Amino acid sequence: MTLLSVKNLVKEFPLDFFGREKLRAVDNISFDIDESKIVSLIGESGSGKTTVGKLILKLLKPTSGQILFHGEDIGKFSKNRKEYYKKVQGIFQDPYSSFNPIYKIDRVFEVVFDEFFPHVKNAQRKEKIEKVLTSVGMNPSQILGKYPHQLSGGQLQRILIARTLLLELNILIADEIISMLDASTRIDILNLLAKIKDKTGMSVIFITHDLSLGYYISDESFIMYRGNIVEMGDTQKVFHNPCHPYTKMLLESIPEIDRKWDFREHIKIETIEDESTGCKYFSRCNVREHRCQKQIPELIEIEENHKVMCFKFYG
Ligand SMILES: Nc1ncnc2c1ncn2[C@@H]1O[C@H](COP(=O)(O)OP(=O)(O)O)[C@@H](O)[C@H]1O
Ligand SMILES: [Mg+2]
Question: How far is ligand 1, taken at its centre, from the CA of residue 26, in Å?
Answer without folding.
Answer: 9
